[in-house]
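User: Assemble these into one structure.

Assistant: Restating your components, then the assembled model:
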Amino acid sequence: MSSWTAKLREAGVSALPPEKLLPDSQPAYMTSAIYLFGALTIGALVTIIASGSILALKGPTWWHVQSIGHFFNSIHLWSVELFFFFMVVHLWGKFWMAAWRGGRARVWMTGAVTFLVAVPCAFTGYISQQNFDSQWIATQGKDGMNSLGVGSFFNVLNFGQMYSYHILLLPLVVVGLVSLHVLLVRRHGIVPPLPFSDAATAAPKP
Amino acid sequence: MRRRRLTNGELDEAAKHYDGPYRPYDIVKEVCVATGVVMLVAVILTILFSSPDLPPSTIASWSRTMPIDFVTTAVTELDGTSETATYGPPYNHESGSVQHIWFINLQKWLGVSHPINAPYDFVIQPLRMIPDQPTLQREVSAYRRASAKTQNAWTAAYTNALAKASARTDGPVAVPPGNYGPVAPMMSALLALAQSGGLDGDLLTSAQFYQTDFTKPLMFLEDGNALNDRATYQHLQGEQWGMMNETGSYPGQVWLWLYTFWYQVSPVSTSANVDALVMAIMGVLSVGFILVPFLPGIRSIPRRIPLYRVIWRDWYAGAGRTSPPPDPPPVGKPAPLREPAAAR
């Protein structure tokens, strides 16, 4: 009788053998620049985490009083803007490719949920800035939260709570979802083009 | 023989397998190069544009620069007519800002979790904490002993007098003589406390030494015009699509454009339940976004607007050079799920 460890290893290797997990070749149809936006999104996420980790190590007030802190805060801000830009282009690209075909619905769904979780992740970051912007966003955002009762346990006016969500809880969820998304992509492979017959039917008559 | 389009099921089945050609591709290198490029772009944007950091408003700065507005707000806290005092859950049991959709009143059902007693927390308690002012403490006691009718008469008279008040920056507020009871000296003391910076600290005080909860000072600030005026100047108001804006000319949370869009559209924008409606609409749209692969009509849009032919144009062009498009299947017969010859 195999151990839990052995069963887990066998299931993992069966679902994602090394050549699938880290392939050194891709289908010949993968030529469009749209394919780069998934990797760019991951690159932006790495930049966010790296700059955010430096900001977290120095504490939430550091970037207000040290120019080097402001520099890293700026990198954090711009990498977040890039992250959302790349992710949205990636999502639109996958939509027009109908990339959920061939049993890839979970790939789409994990990507969509990642976007939806990234929104409050960024939102709590804006609230954690400790400046006028965060004051305004918090006082305005509370009404939306309160209107659904969420404000009773998610208080956007509580800096400590929002900071915890921003630097730990929500990033963990985003990174977990992105990891799951990438593993699902590796398991199913990138979606093939729509069959030529469908493309031919849709094409205008010569 | 008529052409027919493949069904979604047939398309789904066709996309499960690919046995065409492959080409070498270094996926790890792709991610590493992408990360490097993003870091470089972020650094360049940082050098070029930095990031905004407007100092926060404080009760001290508000009371110094807008003393009449501060006192006007403080009186509404004292007489229980401010937005905070009438808000409702999660701050108190009033109903001024309670929203619901049909019979679903989650805001009320989840109750008061962050209690704020505006008259006591924002006015009485801070005044009680001022040491060595026995006269002031007698005034506060007199106000608290008075009947509600008398209290309202004092605060109403004082509120009317504030319309004719004068003040200079960082100074006291002068109102015409009148019967304000203890309200006038109480407001003068509260203003002096606020201008000294003491009220900022008092509103954070709780049983704990360390503080991170700014609910009370932010609610008090929001009741006045200090935040509001700055937000208007920084184009952050709701009607300015402020949810997706940032201070200065920086890009903000642009991804919230659809949230803020609903705040511009009537009847949502004019509803007393505007926030609940927007959150509900976005909740439904978010579920739809996740379930796109299963939504009839939506999942077929990429086939009806074939932008995929642009994305895979090289693939289709290559296939067209080596093999003509296959004949479409006749109606009533299974579709031949063929890939172009070049793919094999």
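Chain A has one domain: 34-194.
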